[in-house]
From TrEMBL:
Keyword entries, A-Z: Cell inner membrane, Cell membrane, Membrane, Transmembrane, Transmembrane helix
Main location: membrane
A GO MF term: ribosome binding
Record's bilayer topology term: Single-pass membrane protein
One cellular component term from this protein's GO annotations in UniProt: plasma membrane
Family per record: Belongs to the ElaB/YgaM/YqjD family.
Protein name: DUF883 domain-containing protein
Pfam family, any one: DUF883_C
Record flagged with keyword Membrane: yes
DUF883 domain segment(s): 15-65, 77-105
Subcellular localization: Cell inner membrane
Superkingdom, taxonomy of origin: Bacteria
Length: 105
């Protein structure tokens, strides 16, 4: 696995974990909110708000990482095509041929 692939996998795993924690805490807060007076509900809302802010930050970080990875792959692909035009042309022709065979079926 490349470093970029590992970063994407770890980022995805972290987002899933954050969503799971947020969902669990939200369910707990909803269950407790019915029995608590106004102060308790306010505290629960603040806790939920903190989790949502954390999740938003994690999603923003994942988006930035994805954009960096995309830019990196784009630059590497362009560099490869410029240094190996014939190999790139051959690869594109091969992919085109395979797609044509699959579409013709």
């Amino acid at each position: 696995m490349t470093a970029t692939t590992e970063q994407f996998a770890l980022g995805k795993q972290k987002i899933v974990e954050d969503l799971s924690v947020l969902l669990t805490d939200s369910e707990e807060m909803l269950r407790l909110a019915t029995a608590l007076p106004g102060e308790g509900v306010d505290a629960l809302r603040e806790r939920l708000r903190a989790h949502v802010d954390t999740l938003r930050a994690a999603l923003a970080d994942a988006q930035v990482a994805a954009q960096r990875g995309y830019r990196s792959v784009t630059v590497q692909t362009e560099r490869y095509v410029r240094h190996n035009p014939w190999q790139a042309l051959g690869a594109a022709a091969g992919v085109g041929f395979l797609l044509g065979v699959l579409v013709a079926r």
